[in-house]
Design a protein that fits this description.
The chain is about 75% helix and about 0% strand. It has about 100 residues and is an all-alpha fold. The protein has one domain.
């Protein structure tokens, strides 16, 4: 992976948001344990916002960098997809 692309804010923002969502899921499970909650709490709402707000960040990344640097852009999007998948797997298996 070319780390030059990782220095650009438009490329790092989706990754940071995905990592924040994964950290939120794992942190919530570590603090409160694996319990089924009847009502969604603040952590669930923050997780949902992080997931939705990644879409405009991804759109900017695709529009701005995909035409000029397709390989690096697709690598960043694949890494982000892996992190998002891990976050959703955490939500599925830990709740």
């Amino acid at each position: 992976m070319n780390f030059e692309m990782m220095r650009r804010p438009g490329a790092i923002l989706p990754l940071v948001m995905a990592l924040a969502a994964l950290t939120l899921v794992l942190g919530h499970a570590a603090v409160y344990g694996i319990v089924h909650e009847i009502d969604e709490g603040t952590a669930a709402h923050i997780f949902q916002l992080l997931m939705v707000l990644q879409l405009p960040a991804d759109a900017f990344l695709i529009v701005e960098w995909l035409p000029s640097e397709p390989r690096q852009t697709l690598q960043i999007l694949a890494l982000q997809a892996f992190i998002v998948f891990a976050a959703f797997a955490g939500v599925f298996f830990l709740t």
